[in-house]
Design brief:
heterodimer, A: 341 residues, alpha+beta, BirA Bifunctional Protein, domain 2, 39% helix, 19% strand, B: 818 residues, Phenylalanyl-tRNA Synthetase, Chain B, domain 1, Phenylalanyl-tRNA Synthetase, Chain B, domain 3, 6 domains, seven-stranded mixed sheet, five-stranded antiparallel sheet, elongated
Chain lengths: 341, 818
């Protein structure tokens, strides 16, 4: 008996393995487990044995039956569930046809638009200004004194004494204030330029979003509120933020805004250089001299302004390690952002 | 800027550990970027005497020495220093000694001779930044004295980022003031030194040509100066903050500058011609040698310090070699002055020479420190250079100089700007901690709009505090920005408005990316030869570019006037990288065209100097070699289809018209894009083969661009029009068309002759080849007829088709097929 069981086991496994499609596999199943199958025949033959032998052989045959069922089932899975429906004969594994090929938005501009959308939702209007700017708007009207070391903070491309490539989106603030009386709440996204050599974290062209709010009594606490609302909406978590005093000629008081590192939760990691904080923007209260340049009467208004580098935020958000990838336009990079809105 | 905590502790006390101190300084605006622990020890290095020195038997430049390191038996050692000789007292690293840079001294064989240790140079022990040659020590030192006893030191150094508005933080005293303000403790300056001592009169007269250029100039005389290395503790502190010790006189001037912030300069009095120092502008361009050995061109108008013969220093920037303190110097004239910040900055920038001195002067010196720093230097020179101080000193200063006027401060405004609720007492206390003098005004406690609560006197080292808001920043810093809490739910004023161009751009980006185009961001610069490669005509306005006068090294200078080169560069890059065509890209970017009028409203008269900035949307299909309907290349069909669909998507009436005079497009495979008013607002087509070759692009490129800033991007409004519910009658025409007739001509003929009921005509087939006579093509056109009044009869439709066929026959000799 045992000999027969062993032979049946090896024959059934060989036949199962050889079955190339579902029909062949079904034939194997019928030949072994079917009503007239070889295993069924052996089970029928049990009644001819004495009781002890019958019990032993019965148990062995039942184990074999389960084994073979399992092998057939495994083979069935191997042959794949996605197969021509017997009824239609269509090959449903063939690739589909998209209504259009898949393209993508540039991650940098996606982040820029996301940021603008959040501020739009908070009530900010949007405007843009020229990239080739007057020294007046980029520096003088923003309270950068002529021949002052503050100008060294930003390496500038000049066309002549009066014309340059803007180093920041802040000049659009002044243009806006020249045109309109408060209350104002605006954002100014755009491309800016610095005369710097490119490396993994510097590019001579990059993007910023500038924000400006002016009204009769806007305070630094309101700035903090606004920043927190933005961080909550953009990063999706209420990561704490902190203000660190800093210096920008066109704001006073000036601060740098850090948020708790989103990667390590403030414990310290490689991205935040173990500090637990990530610098996300510069900000401050609009300097009275800027209001003066805009032609607003002394003391009538207060306001806040902030500015952030989009490249850095995009790099943080997507884990991009080299800023140059953003400007190489390599499809191997860009294709990774398909469907990213 | 580096701050030594050992040095800082001379002036102020604090109890926090370093990390906490650093965090509190950062929170107050002095950003601590790094903390460095210095622990200078020299295990195994001792004082030793060179007993014998002879030439190495096998190497000309090496010496074989025997030294006594205090252990008794002479030790044999090979030494490579040129200055080693018998009788010297040196620092000797025994076998097993550990030197900086993880160098462990082992017994070794050098050119066949055993060497049991190393005679050390200052550089090897990092006691000096250069220091070729071994150290020569005082011969009275006992052999075997550990080097640690002489040179070991420990310190902690903060690397701080000093913003340009805070020159006072460029000194240890300045940082000490901040620490005191943060902790509410007192700081102390070094005591004022009483300089009077025996000696002759200075005998030097000082003249300042314009006090606007130099508000104060003081000169101090020192005699019997002995030039030598400065004391070890001073060298250690200078080394700790990254300064290079030179000699006692120079080190002391530097030391006082890093300590008190006031740059000083020491002249060799013996080298100065005559007895007069004049501070004046250079009358003409001249050439000088600065004490760093460089020859520099000085422009007329640069502020100079001159003796009776000529310049001896570039005021506030650097001294000249002609009056430099050297080993032979015995008499010194010490300068401490207050130079005009802007003049120092101009001179420093023009010459590309930034010194510790110019860095401080251009940010603004401290008037009150001029005399005090000089006295501190005199004290140190007397102590450490054996100098004898001449009792008399020369001092010229602007008689009109006044301390800053007190600033009025309204506590109401403090709370208005910061959103805080501080009271007069808190404000006064913070300002006093910062060393500002507060004079209460009127009813000091009454906080209301316009009420001045106090007048604040700003000390000379805080001349960055010019107005009320500067004081408010000080209050914010010290009060603590972490105390600032929003009101919660602050809403900005005014309703947000979306401009049509922003909406259109956003929709375009979304739609194009959904159509399979990948967005690119390309540089605003173009390469020098791009216009030629594009075959632009010599008089093409786009050849006029703006060029930066200070490009990056090897960087492009011209701003682009055309987007095409960037499209070709991106196509080339990705085709070469093996991406599978067709490649589809789009960009919305600006070009810069000088000399074109601008529509911007602005107050500034110079606005006309700015170029026009035109924004284009550009779509690109690269590397597609297949042909489609009508034998047209697929890329061309898709580009045309994309422009048409884009117009539909934005609800803008854009039309394409065959032909363009754009030099870089293939004239036979390109269109002009026109707006509703007939203006050409863009082009579409295949890039000319010669241009592809010039840009080294392997494969066809079709592209279209439409100028967005020139279009009214407000979408045409949607308005419902009633439609007829009667059924349409469809008929297909199969035509044999002579090759010279274009589909557009057939379409126009069909549309004009089809009568009132022809609703639409559409090309659904095009065939040329077997079964169609040579020189002809078969067109399949589907016609749809419909009447608003009722169902059309077969006769009416037949009649209309008869009209169409007659017109086609008459006008173009077209027959129906078969």
């Amino acid at each position: 008996m045992q000999e027969m069981i062993d032979r049946l086991r090896s024959e059934a496994s060989a036949a199962t393995a050889a079955a190339g499609d579902d029909a062949a596999l079904e034939a194997v199943r019928v030949a072994v487990l079917g009503r007239k199958g070889s295993l069924t025949a052996l089970l029928r033959g049990l009644k001819d044995l004495d009781e002890a032998a019958r019990r032993e052989a019965g148990a062995a045959l039942n184990v074999l039956k389960e084994e073979i069922s399992a092998v057939i089932e495994a083979r069935q899975a191997e042959l794949g569930g996605d197969r021509p429906a017997a009824s239609s004969g269509l090959d449903l594994t063939l690739p589909g046809r998209a209504p259009a090929p898949i393209g993508s938005r540039h991650p940098l501009l996606t982040v820029l638009e996301n940021i603008c959308d959040i501020f739009h939702g908070m009530g900010f209007s949007r405007d843009e200004g020229p990239e080739v700017e007057l020294d007046y708007y980029n520096f003088t009207a923003l309270n950068f004194p002529d021949d002052h070391p503050a100008r060294d903070i930003q390496d500038t491309f000049y066309f002549n004494d009066k014309v340059l490539l803007r180093t920041q989106t802040s000049p659009v603030q002044v243009r806006m204030m020249e045109r309109r009386e408060p209350p104002l709440a605006c954002i100014f996204p755009g491309r800016v330029y610095r005369n710097e050599n490119a490396d993994a974290s510097h590019s001579s062209e990059f993007f910023q979003v500038e924000g400006l709010v002016v009204d009769r009594s806007v305070s630094m606490a309101d700035l903090k509120d606004t920043v927190d609302t933005f961080v909550r909406n953009f990063f999706g978590a209420s990561a704490p933020t902190r203000f660190r005093p800093h210096y920008f000629p066109f704001t006073e008081p000036s601060v740098e805004v850090d948020m708790q590192c989103i990667l390590c939760g403030g414990k310290g990691c490689g991205v935040c250089k173990q500090s637990g904080w990530l610098e996300i923007m510069g900000a401050g209260m609009v300097h009275p001299n800027v209001f003066k340049a805009a032609g607003y009467p002394d003391d009538r208004y207060t306001g806040f302004a902030f500015g952030m580098g989009i490249d850095r935020i995009a790099m943080l958000k997507y884990g991009i390690t080299d800023i140059r990838l953003l400007y190489e336009n390599d499809l191997r990079f860009l294709n990774q952002f398909r469907g990213v809105q | 800027m580096k701050i030594s905590l050992d040095w800082l502790s001379d002036f102020v006390d604090w109890t926090d550990e370093t990390a906490v101190l650093a965090a509190r300084l950062t929170a107050a605006g002095l950003n601590v970027e790094g903390i460095e622990q210095i622990n200078k020890t020299f295990p195994g290095v001792v004082v030793a005497r060179v007993l014998e020195r002879e030439k190495h038997p096998d190497a000309d430049r090496l010496s074989l020495c025997k030294v006594d390191d205090g252990t008794g038996a002479p030790v044999q050692v090979v030494c490579g220093a040129p200055n080693v000789r018998a009788g010297l007292t040196v620092l000797f690293a025994r076998v097993g000694a550990e030197l900086p840079g993880d160098l462990r001294i082992k017994k070794s064989k050098i050119r066949g001779v055993e060497s049991h240790g190393m005679i050390c140079s200052a550089a090897e022990l990092e006691l000096s930044l250069d220091g070729a040659g071994i150290i020569e020590l005082d011969t009275k030192l006992p052999n075997g004295t550990p080097a640690d006893d002489l040179f070991g030191f420990k310190d902690t150094v903060l690397e701080v980022e000093v913003t340009p508005n805070r020159p006072d933080w460029l000194s240890h005293v300045g940082v000490a003031r901040e620490v005191a303000a943060i902790y509410g403790t007192k700081m102390s300056l070094p005591p004022v030194f009483n300089a009077v001592q025996g000696g002759e009169s200075l005998g030097v007269k000082v003249r300042v040509e314009h006090y606007a250029d130099c508000g104060r100039y003081t000169a101090w005389g020192l005699q019997r100066v002995k030039i030598a290395p400065s004391p070890r503790w001073m060298q250690n502190r200078l080394l700790a903050i990254g300064a290079r010790p030179i000699n006692n006189v120079v080190d002391i001037t530097n030391y006082v500058m890093f300590e008190m912030g006031q740059p000083l300069h020491a002249f060799d009095r013996g080298q100065l011609a005559g007895n007069a120092i004049t501070v004046r502008r250079a009358p003409k361009n001249t050439s000088v040698q600065t004490l760093d050995g460089q020859t520099r061109e000085v422009e007329a108008g640069t502020l100079m310090v001159c003796d009776e013969k000529g310049p001896v220093a570039l005021a506030g920037v650097m001294g000249l070699g002609n009056s430099e303190v050297s080993e032979k110097t015995t008499e010194v004239l010490l300068e401490s002055a207050f130079f005009n910040a802007s003049l120092v900055r101009k001179a420093s920038r023009r010459m590309g020479l930034i010194s510790e001195s110019s860095y401080r002067f251009e940010r603004g010196a401290d008037w009150d420190m001029v005399e005090r720093a000089a006295l501190r230097a005199l004290q140190l020179l007397q102590e450490h250079a054996g100098a004898r101080i001449v009792p008399d000193w020369a001092d010229r200063h602007d008689p009109d100089h006044r301390p800053a006027d007190p600033l009025p401060l309204r506590v109401w405004q403090v709370n208005r700007v910061l959103g805080t609720a501080v009271n007069t007492g808190q404000v006064a206390q913070i300002l006093q901690r910062l060393g500002l003098k507060v004079q209460p005004m009127g009813n000091a406690e009454s906080i209301s709009a316009g009420a001045v609560n106090m007048m604040v006197q700003v000390p000379s080292h805080r001349r960055d505090l010019l107005m009320e808001v500067d004081l408010i920043e000080e209050i914010a810093r010290i009060h603590g920005l972490d105390q600032l809490t929003g009101r919660g739910g602050y809403r900005v004023p005014g309703g947000a408005v979306r401009r049509p161009q922003d909406v259109a751009r956003d929709r375009l980006r979304g739609w194009l990316s959904s159509c399979g185009y990948t967005e690119i961001v390309t540089s605003s610069f173009m390469e020098a030869g791009d216009h030629d490669k594009l075959a632009l005509a010599a008089d093409d306005a786009r050849r006029a570019t703006l060029a930066v006068v200070n490009p990056r090294h090897g960087g492009d200078t011209q701003l682009r006037t055309v987007l095409a080169p960037s499209a070709l560069a991106v196509s080339r890059r990705n085709l070469n990288a093996g991406a599978t065509p067709p490649l589809r890209f789009f960009q919305i970017n600006r070009v810069f065209r000088p000399g074109q009028p601008l529509g911007r409203d602005t107050r500034h008269a110079d606005e006309a100097l700015l170029p026009a900035e035109h924004e284009y949307v550009q779509v690109i299909v690269a590397g597609w070699r297949d042909t489609g309907l009508g034998g047209l290349p697929c890329d061309l069909l898709e580009i045309r289809g994309t422009v048409e669909a884009m117009a539909g998507h934005l609800r803008l009436p854009l039309t394409l018209e065959a032909g363009t005079d754009e030099s870089w497009l293939d004239a036979g495979a390109a269109w002009s894009v026109r707006a509703a008013d007939g203006r050409v607002v863009g082009v579409a087509g295949r890039v000319a083969p010669g241009v592809l070759a010039a840009f080294d692009v392997d494969g066809p490129v079709a592209l279209a661009e439409v100028r967005l800033d020139d279009l009214d991007l407000t979408p045409a409004p949607a308005r419902f029009e009633p439609f007829t519910r009667f059924p349409a009658v469809k008929r297909d025409l199969s035509l044999l068309v002579p090759a010279e007739v274009a589909y557009g001509q057939i379409r126009d003929t069909v549309d004009s002759s089809g009568g009132p009921f022809l609703e639409s005509s559409e090309l659904f087939d095009f065939y040329r080849g077997k079964g169609v006579p040579e020189g002809q093509a078969a067109f399949g056109i589907r016609l749809k007829f419909r009447s608003p009044k009722g169902s059309l009869t077969g006769e009416t439709v037949d009649a209309a088709i008869g009209e169409i066929l007659t017109a086609l026959k008459d006008r173009w000799a077209i027959d129906p097929r078969g």
